[in-house]
Amino acid sequence: MDNMLQQKKKTTGRRKIEIKKLDKETNKQVTFSKRRQGLFKKASELCVLCDVHAAIIVFSPADKLYSFGQPNTDAILNSYINGTTEFTDAKSMEDSSTYAEYNGQYEESLKMLEMEKKKLAEVENLAKTWNRGDWWNDSIDDMSINQLEQFMISLYELRKKLFERADGLSMMFPF
Amino acid sequence: MDNMLQQKKKTTGRRKIEIKKLDKETNKQVTFSKRRQGLFKKASELCVLCDVHAAIIVFSPADKLYSFGQPNTDAILNSYINGTTEFTDAKSMEDSSTYAEYNGQYEESLKMLEMEKKKLAEVENLAKTWNRGDWWNDSIDDMSINQLEQFMISLYELRKKLFERADGLSMMFPF
DNA sequence: GCGGCTATGTATAAAGT
DNA sequence: TACTTTATACATAGCCG
Asked: Fewest beta carbons less than 10 Å away: which of A116, B43, B90, B133?
């Protein structure tokens, strides 16, 4: 009954969106602005809560540069470059190439994940159309997708950690 | 009245926290892990949605390096450095003890290896579970199968590479 | 394009296993 | 010790001025 007394909703509220390139240029600009702000805020919170250093560099759709740095961007980049340079110089080419190979691994994982999500969604729609029965609803749900996501993230983290540790060990134990 | 029939709440749910340095070391580590993951995901979404490039560098509480880069970290940093000529030479800055941390201590490395062994075992179990789980067999299609195969291959190659790089330690990995 | 407003989607602090 | 669950805090898509 109360429902009937409720006012007409003033807005549609936030709507779910697919994570894919936005076509509308104006929309893209707005989203970039909002999300960049959110990203920097998150980074700031991470730095404060965990007492760590971090830096972010972002180029806007119009190629304008935005950066975040705690304590400051250049200091973090110096650390990164120092470390990377040292890492590369310290050992043989195999090591550095291996390490470089894992730059962008995260993005690859995410792409694979997105592909798999789409497939799951497709199959799910197909199944719903067929309306075969309850087995489907019991078997495919967000949890499956989340598990897949966890798996991909775990795989990525695992590989990264293993290689980092393997490098460290190989330096200590020259075999 | 319905309230009286409701179960006692199982958890307190998320609670509001103040954004200030976390004191409990364990809590700090957990929060760092979660929020770093979230931060990277947000960055990834921003890059996809707005079709832009970005890079993030974070040092963990234990001074471990984590980086995100679209298309890759180094490219973004180069752009940044070239764009802002005010970047001091890395080598002239204070010594980078950053990557010295990667070598770590012997005991520390062994602990890490133990953790990774467990994690790998878990991932394998998860994959096996998926492979024989009913939901998978019932809802499978060729593309999904291929995708799973890709995961398995990735896992296999990971192990293979690990063997190649740390063959002396193979006795520590029972697979 | 910029900021404010909802309503809703998403991240995550704590508790549980 | 780490992973999962749950309830809640927080971020943000679509609108409007």
From this structure: B133
